[in-house]
Design brief:
Layout (H helix, E strand, L loop, with lengths): L23 H8 L2 H6 L5 E2 L4 E4 L11 E4 L4 E4 L5 E2 L1 H9 L3 H12 L11 H28 L5 H9 L4 H6 L3 E3 L5 H6 L5 H6 L3 E4 L6 H6 L3 E4 L4 E7 L5 E8 L10 E3 L15 H9 L10 E4 L2 H9 L5 E3 L7 H8 L4 E4 L5 H16 L3 E4 L8 H8 L1 H9 L2 E2 H12 L5 H16 L4 H14 L4 H13 L16 H10 L22 H12 L8 H13 L10 H12 L7 H33 L2 H25 L1
Parallel strand pairs: 12-13, 12-14, 14-15
Antiparallel strand pairs: 1-2, 2-3, 3-4, 4-5, 6-9, 7-8, 9-10, 10-11, 15-16
Helix pairs in contact: 3-4, 12-15, 15-16, 17-18, 18-20, 19-20, 21-22, 25-26
Length: 640
């Protein structure tokens, strides 16, 4: 059920970079379940009463160090140090601004957005441009779909039918047609978008008129004409299903028609190296949802027609690189949904080389990989259309483990009947082995390669040890954490326990409230007695005290890396209930600590007064020490 907020003037405040009490972002944050939001990007498992753990999406890791605290609505990675609230996560994972992150989460929750103001004119222009480009692409996509239904597009419909695409599939993938005219789309869009948006959309080309001066160029539009003409149009959608670009497949056969497949240029909303075709439809089949379990793995193909044809035959966990080389960003994007992948590229030389490059990248990202090699002359599209779904399912079931595939490739390229051929095969395979992070796995594969290439395993292992020794470390060991006392942890947890106190956070009743608030009590005592002075966590506690005074969210403090890691470690280990008795015990211990420190200083000062013969100072210091000894004794007896 969608949650709705009443949009009042109070909500129409400036969205800059943090959620402050009273503004729209703050109210929205209270409704957003950070576990559910992050769970759309990271596979999380319960790791405690309030903690969830998973693999960090911001750096490469094999063991989960990414933790989400549900009640505090806070995430932290103990590997790379990334941390923050739900807005921070969306900003970082989507590479967007804070206002755009707020808008994204509001859309996920079905909360209507108030009017948004941006932190700077530049940020506002960029956000406005991205929004306009999404609108322009959406309009163009709907227009292409409309053109496909017209009589002039009969040859386009016939082509799609010849490729086995029925009306349901065409509608599902929003396939359309760009007519031959270079001006129909321009005329349709120019009434709704200015020339700057049309130029930036990637949908048009133009020729500048060299005779126009700079002033007239600003006021008079240049001769824009459609980039895509007489082409089947395949929209490229981002993970959320928004149309961000197009691929146009030509229907012409003459040399002037241009490339067979023409792609949109890169824009403010589209980068081909950061998108996986069909991920918006495939992600639930890969990962699963609350209602339906996912398959747990993805099928990676090269072309969009390969992807569409497989999807049409109910192979819904398929994604495509759209003919581009697989990139590190795409690997990380896919890794948010699964770490298991079947690579099914064309079996020709180019396809094999592409598969090899993708394998290398996926190995580095710790994917479990299989390779599906179809019969010569068949790409995935042709194979499933000619041989059917069951044949493809059988081939999928018998796909090779990736190193078996590489060993076969090595055998084909380098005949292993001679010592020279075996050496070349080993040298071909060694770089792939080097990318494996686990020494145990490297040893197991070394034995397998030795057996299949009939090479002495001892010799091969020596080569592997040499290569492994030159590997660059993929992670930095965390330095030893400071020794933080249980009392310090208690103070920090208490101060972080309230996101917003009253405007006057300090009670006028000597720190006591009818309803116990740990943050209020700790603030009162520490602000008046500075009992945290000299503690290992003094700087962090001071920052939290300031957050309580300001009424701001402690989870959004601009802390240094060490303090941020310390705060996250303490909060993620939150297990003990904070009670008035526990807090009073902590204060008593800190007071006793301060008294004993003062007593040590007095001993030194008394010795110095005796040495100088200063009887007045000696008497005053001795009296203070006697009083302090009595107070320390009383506190020791109370605590004992």
């Amino acid at each position: 059920m969608a949650v709705h907020l009443c949009v009042t003037p109070r909500l129409k405040r400036t969205l800059k970079s943090v959620a402050n009490p009273g503004d729209f972002a703050y109210d929205l944050k209270q409704q957003a379940d950070i576990v559910r939001v992050i769970g759309e990007y990271v596979q999380l498992r319960k790791a405690g009463a309030q903690n969830y753990a998973g693999l960090c999406p911001f750096h490469n890791e094999k063991s989960p160090s990414f933790s989400v605290h549900q009640s505090r609505q806070f995430f932290h990675c103990f590997g790379c140090g990334a941390s923050g609230d739900v807005f921070t996560f969306i900003q970082k994972i989507e590479n967007i601004t804070f206002p755009e992150a707020v808008r994204s989460i509001a859309q996920k929750l079905g909360v209507p957005m108030p009017k948004v103001e941006y932190a700077s004119p530049q940020e506002a222009r960029e956000a406005k441009m991205r929004g306009a480009l999404l609108d322009a692409n959406e309009l163009a996509c709907a227009w292409f779909q409309e053109q496909l239904r017209k009589p002039d597009a009969a040859h386009a419909r016939e082509y799609l039918k010849s490729r086995g695409l029925d009306a349901e599939t065409v509608e599902k993938f929003r396939i359309g047609f760009a007519p031959e005219s270079g001006f129909l789309l321009r005329d349709r869009m120019k009434g709704e978008f200015n020339e700057e948006i049309l130029r930036e959309s990637g949908l048009f080309s133009w020729k500048e008129d060299a005779t126009r001066d700079s002033e007239s160029a600003k006021s008079a539009p240049s001769a824009l004409y459609a980039k895509f003409r007489n082409r089947i149009m395949f929209p490229i959608r981002n993970e959320q299903g928004k149309v961000i670009a197009f691929t146009g497949r030509t229907l012409a056969t003459d040399e002037k028609s241009g490339p067979k497949y023409l792609n949109s240029p890169e824009t403010a909303i589209y980068s081909k190296s950061r998108v996986l075709f069909n991920l918006n439809l495939a992600k639930e089949a890969i990962r699963g949802s609350k209602d339906a379990p996912g398959l747990g793995y993805a099928i990676l193909v090269e072309g969009q027609m390969d992807c569409i044809s497989l999807y049409r035959e109910d192979v819904h966990n398929v994604i495509a690189t759209s003919g581009t080389a697989f990139t590190e960003f795409q690997a990380k994007l896919l890794g948010r949904f699964t770490k298991q992948v079947v690579v099914n590229f064309d079996p020709d030389t180019a396809g094999a080389a592409a598969a090899e490059r993708s394998l290398a990248l996926l190995v580095s990202e710790d994917f479990q990989i299989r390779v599906l090699t179809l019969e010569p002359g068949f790409d995935p599209d042709l194979y499933i259309r000619k041989k059917g779904r069951e044949a493809y399912a059988y081939a999928l079931k018998h796909s090779q483990k990736y190193f078996d595939y590489l060993i076969d490739r090595a055998r084909k390229q380098y005949p292993t009947g001679t010592p020279e051929g075996k050496l070349k095969a080993v040298n071909y395979l060694l770089p792939h082995i080097q990318r494996l992070s686990s020494k145990l796995v490297r040893d197991e594969i070394a034995m397998d390669i030795a057996h299949k290439l009939q090479i002495d395993s001892t010799v091969l292992k020596e080569e592997l040890r040499h290569v492994a020794g030159s590997r660059t470390a993929t992670s930095v060991k965390a330095s030893a954490a400071p020794q933080i006392t249980p009392i310090e942890k208690m103070l920090i947890r208490a101060l972080a326990s309230s996101n917003q106190l009253a405007k006057d956070p300090v009670s006028s009743r000597e720190g006591q409230d009818l309803d116990f608030e740990a943050a209020r009590q700790v603030h009162y005592v520490l602000a008046n007695e500075t009992l945290h002075a000299g503690l290992q966590t003094e700087r962090l506690i001071a920052a939290l005290l300031k957050a309580v005074e300001d009424g701001s969210d402690p989870m959004t403090l601009p802390l240094g890396e060490g303090d941020r890691r310390t705060l996250a470690t303490i909060l993620m280990g939150d297990t003990e209930t904070l009670t008035p008795e526990a807090m009073e015990g902590a204060f008593a211990s800190l007071r006793l600590r301060r008294m004993k420190a003062r007593r040590s200083d007095l001993v030194v000062e008394i010795t110095a007064a005796e040495r100088k013969g200063d009887s007045a100072a000696l008497g005053r210091l001795s009296l203070e020490k006697m009083q302090l000894d009595r107070e320390i004794r009383e506190l020791d007896e109370e605590s004992g």
